[in-house]
Design goal:
- It contains 4 helices and 3 strands, in the order αβαβαβα.
- It is α/β, with parallel strands linked by helices.
- The chain has one domain: Class I glutamine amidotransferase (GATase) domain (Rossmann fold, 3-Layer(aba) Sandwich).
- The chain has a 3-stranded parallel beta sheet, covered by helices on one side.
- The longest helix is centred in the first third of the chain and has 22 residues, at 3-24.
Length: 118
């Protein structure tokens, strides 16, 4: 499947999801904080993140932030400084693919329940 078709499929799923959330939310509900994590991937992640952010922002249901990782070949120090604040968000959307060259420890960054600390 081409990258364009994958992005289109994700956009369609998000559109359906956002419509469902809109029906379920009270009229004056506050926006859900959502974090898109991106920066290392095997596709055109900057474009995908831009499209995802536009769809989610356009729904009026989410307050969308983006946390972009260092490049795959960044130093260990750069990776150690990248610390998304997952606890601040109700929704995490990953446009991130761990690659072997990146010295990232999934248990440290992706433990959302607060049990794993750096």
């Amino acid at each position: 499947m081409s990258t364009i078709l994958r992005i289109a499929a994700v956009c369609q799923i998000l559109t359906i999801f956002c419509q469902g959330v809109a029906v379920a939310q009270p009229a004056k509900a506050s926006k859900l904080p959502l974090l898109i994590v991106d920066g290392v991937n095997n596709h055109d992640w900057p474009r995908a993140t831009k499209v995802l952010k536009e769809i989610l922002d356009g729904s009026g249901l989410f307050r969308v932030d983006v946390s972009t990782s260092p490049p795959n070949d960044a130093t260990k120090e750069a990776w150690d400084q990248w610390r998304p604040e997952f606890k601040k968000y109700d929704v995490i959307l990953s446009n991130f693919r761990y690659l072997d060259k990146a010295p990232l420890h999934h248990d440290r960054f992706f433990c959302l329940n607060g049990q794993a600390e750096a």
